[in-house]
Amino acid sequence: MTPIKEVVKEKYGQAALRVTSGGSSCCGSTSSRGSADPITSNLYAGHETALLPLEAVQASLGCGNPAALAELRPGETVLDLGSGGGIDVLLSARRVGPAGKAYGLDMTDEMLALARENQRKSGLANVEFLKGEIENIPLPDNSVDVIISNCVINLSADKDLVLKEAYRVLKPGGRFAVSDVVTRGEIPAEVRKSILLWVGCIAGALDEFEYKAKLAQAGFINIGIEPTRVYNVEDARQFLSDHKLDVDAISPHVVDKFYSGFVRATKPV
Question: Cα-flanking dihedrals φ and ψ of residue 36, to 5°?
Fold first, then answer.
């Protein structure tokens, strides 16, 4: 296991344990359904979270709502890469209905335990949580209609392999529909590192053009990235100040350059 993967696994395992003990996540408060964190808050509509276990909502460490943006249809099979506490898997299961199937894939035992308990509380039968890594998906070729993910691919040290695996398990015509942290334009290395640490605990976000190029290299077509939430320096002022950075000085290097994006692509028929 790579050093990056070890740290990610440890931090997200700790986040799961904090949720089960009533604490907070690594990226912002999850002590209530109405977190004030600018990254993870207000991503889901009230009617979506009302039917879910509280712990599934509290364990959400994402930056978007891919289950809604993917426009899932009844009867489809969907896979969530890095499913965490299971919120997007449970929402997907409701959207695809009893004739469909929602898989969640996670490498962290603590998150898997939390997700399976959330599934039990939800009463949803068309859900299955798998242990594994997003660089080595434990599903057959051409077995999934839609792949979603919520602010997880940016954590991988081998994004090319993640996208190659996603392409492999998607059926011809299948959809890649993920929320992820994306950057835009030239950014000083120190600023980039600090902002990405704030955005995703540990993040290695791709530039939007590089993301599109990697999707194309993996074989995808109809590639697009739609910004869903742009982060500004005021959101991160306290974090950056704690890291001894002059917030006012770096502001010009940050404006409109870090955002949550909905990344979509299609596997050719």
Answer: -90, 0
User: How far is C-alpha 88 from the chain's CA centre?
Assistant: 9
Closest among 159, 149, 255 to 210, alpha carbons compared: 159
Residues 14, 203, 94: CA angle, nearest 5 degrees: 70
Give the domain ranges of the chain.
Answer: 3-266
The rounded distance, in Å, linking the Cα atoms of 257 and 220 is 25
**What is the homologous superfamily of the domain 3-266 according to CATH?**
Vaccinia Virus protein VP39 (3.40.50.150)
Helix, strand, or coil (residue 23)? coil
SS3 74: coil
At 80, list the tokens: 């969530």
Angle value at C-alpha 204, between 202 and 206, nearest 5 degrees: 150
pLDDT in single tens digits along all 269 residues of the chain: 655 566 666 666 566 556 555 543 444 433 333 345 666 666 777 777 676 767 766 666 677 888 889 999 999 999 999 998 899 999 999 999 999 999 999 998 999 999 999 999 999 999 999 999 999 999 999 999 999 999 899 888 899 999 999 999 999 999 999 999 898 988 778 777 777 776 665 468 899 999 999 999 999 999 999 999 888 777 777 777 777 778 788 777 778 888 889 999 999 99
- H helices then E strands: how many in the chain? 11, 8
What is the reported pTM? 0.82
Residue whose structure tokens are 């350059």: 257
For the chain, helix, strand, coil in percent to 5 are: 40, 25, 40
Q: What Cα–Cα distance (Å) separates residue 14 from each residue in 57, 66, 117?
A: 16, 24, 17
8 Å CB contact between 104 and 83: yes
